[in-house]
Amino acid sequence: MVETNRKYIFDFDSTLTRVEALDVLAEITLKDGSSKAKVLEEIQHITNLGIDGDISFTESLERRIQLLRATKGDLVPLVQQLKQKISKSIEENKEFFRNNAEDIYVISCGFKEFIDPIVAEYDIPSERVFANTFKFDAAGNIIGFDETNVLSKHNGKIDCLKNLDLEGEVQVIGDGYSDYVMREAGIADKFFAYTENVHRTKAADNADYITPNLNEFLYVNNLPRKISYPKNRIKILLLENVHPDAFEHLSEEGFSVELLKHALPEEELMERIKGVHVLGIRSKTQVTKKVLEAADRLLVVGAFCIGTTQIDLETAKKNGVVVFNAPYSNTRSVVELAIGQIIMLKRSIFARSTEIHQGKWFKTALNSQEVRGKNLGIIGYGNIGKQLSVLAEAMGMRVYYYDIADRLALGNATKCKTLEELLAISDVVTLHIDDNKANKNFIGEQQFSQMRDGAVFVNLSRGFVVDIKALVAALQSKKLSGAAVDVYPEEPRSNGAFKTELQGLENVILTPHIGGSTEEAQRDIADFVPNKIMDYINSGNTVDAVNFPNIRLPKQQNAHRFLHIHDNVPGIMAKINEVLAKYELNISGQYLSTDSEVGYVITDLDKDYNDDVFRELKAIKGTIRFRVLY
Ligand SMILES: NC(=O)C1=CN([C@@H]2O[C@H](COP(=O)(O)OP(=O)(O)OC[C@H]3O[C@@H](n4cnc5c(N)ncnc54)[C@H](O)[C@@H]3O)[C@@H](O)[C@H]2O)C=CC1
Ligand SMILES: O=C(O)C(=O)COP(=O)(O)O
């Protein structure tokens, strides 16, 4: 039992439950038919007019009851259905109702016949439920309501609360303007506009607090709750036009998400990142040391792509910021584009197509060859390189590959010991190495000179790995018969003008870094990365993090979870456990993973903790970040 000297007044419809009960009743009573939808719409309209105070409540009630044509028997399925429609965060925090049972009241303009059985399960007895009651005829039809009840009158909640004459601070939690009026009249001390189910502007505009769920209400009041930090307080900034599904998934989870179409330059990002807990980017946004240092709340960076060298991974780690990416989602898209481009180059298709666009017919087999039987040299035999190997072989190409790591050949592919060997044998050279900064100008003048005369060259990896001047020279001198380039050393942050020295060259296909830009890939990434983010935020899992010790954690029931990220120096674990022992906290599970720089320890406890424990754990020397989950 928590002593707060507060009284909590809850509204019922759309606050404790996700729905308006009379709308559900209408669904039950109205027979399917052409008029059903119209009547339902009419009932909802009248409900809203009443809630917003645009018509008198008595009028709204009378009109709805006439339309409903309900009976006593209809209340049974109504109660059953309402039990399934309790607001999510109310359900999650059932303990709040148990612990504060004496101080919780329901004041509703709904009806006790269906409210009482629902809220009884939340330890609110009938005597603390104030609502209307139905009038029935002898046959059990609902024919009206008790008109002497104050709650059947316009602004009846004011009189109802006045009559209760409650002591202590009175807080009203409701979704409608008719709840706010108790505060306006000066009988309640605070009004929380409850927006978990419906956001009513008129109520929200007047509220002392807008509370998107009960967790936020409990947080504001510093009361025990299911999760320590309400999800709506977690701010997510998604840049570079990531697929809208990501926005959907993360918003549905309750986070506050903002979506921008473009990348941000360093200075602007340093400003925008303040207060942000999760940053979502693609390949353009540079998450530099300065940006990470300006970030005061950052927990996670989600790279909605494969490459992660645009992020200062080391600084992120040292600051306790976990980075995730999507290593597989767009690989197939890149492979398909590579195949397409290789065929287009070998057939000089873009030249032929441009001629026709310019009104010229030039039918020729000149510079046009099949890919069957040609040697394909793949540099970088990773997730993309390997898939390309299989598909190219299926088209009859002879595949050679070169990789600095020891990679098993798929199918009949032949491994080359050196880059020179690969360059010398390939009719088509395609680049799929990773975005490691050490790969800068990996292919330059010397490498082009080692290629076969008339070879074609494809780069879908990163712009900086190729010396563009050398590539232009190789194309101009006809050493290469063509090239396809998707990535450039400098790429613009948003769509618009773009210049490259490769423009205007013959048989050169230029694409704006769209290798991974397919609907399928972007949708898959928008599913994969948010799941990783949510898994880390909600339970501390770092599986598949690119810069952090990986820990897969079991789900815990009735436990508190402490996440402690620290410098990997001796003795920290002992200090954590010393604090826990001092406060006689029983550890139900403890998991540790370290790398050379940081340690990540998760401790599950089966007992309530107080703020002193929190403070002491945070104060341990070497602590980078400390977070409590629930
Ligand atoms: N154009 C686009 O839209 C996209 C581009 N990419 C880029 O494609 C590249 C490859 O992606 P994945 O196959 O997923 O990466 P991966 O990491 O699975 O494979 C890269 C391979 O390159 C090898 N490698 C690295 N440096 C090398 C070097 N100097 N010489 C030889 N081998 C080297 C690695 O050992 C590894 O096997 C990355 O740079 C990625 O950023 C990825 C997706 C979309
Ligand atoms: O996945 C990658 O590394 C890519 O290059 C794709 O980047 P993007 O998401 O198109 O900015």
From TrEMBL:
GO molecular function: (S)-2-hydroxyglutarate dehydrogenase activity; NAD binding; phosphoglycerate dehydrogenase activity
Annotated ACT domain residues: 561-630
Pfam families cross-referenced by the UniProt entry: 2-Hacid_dh, 2-Hacid_dh_C, ACT_AHAS_ss, HAD
Highest taxon listed in the record's lineage: Bacteria
GO biological process per UniProt: L-serine biosynthetic process
Pathway note: Amino-acid biosynthesis; L-serine biosynthesis; L-serine from 3-phospho-D-glycerate: step 1/3
EC number, UniProt record: 1.1.1.399, 1.1.1.95
Catalytic activity of the protein: (2R)-3-phosphoglycerate + NAD(+) = 3-phosphooxypyruvate + NADH + H(+); (R)-2-hydroxyglutarate + NAD(+) = 2-oxoglutarate + NADH + H(+)
Enzyme class: oxidoreductase
NCBIfam families (alphabetical): HAD-SF-IB, PRK11790.1
Function: Catalyzes the reversible oxidation of 3-phospho-D-glycerate to 3-phosphonooxypyruvate, the first step of the phosphorylated L-serine biosynthesis pathway. Also catalyzes the reversible oxidation of 2-hydroxyglutarate to 2-oxoglutarate.
Family: Belongs to the D-isomer specific 2-hydroxyacid dehydrogenase family.
Protein name, per record: D-3-phosphoglycerate dehydrogenase
The species this protein was found in: Croceitalea dokdonensis DOKDO 023
Classification lineage: Bacteria, Pseudomonadati, Bacteroidota, Flavobacteriia, Flavobacteriales
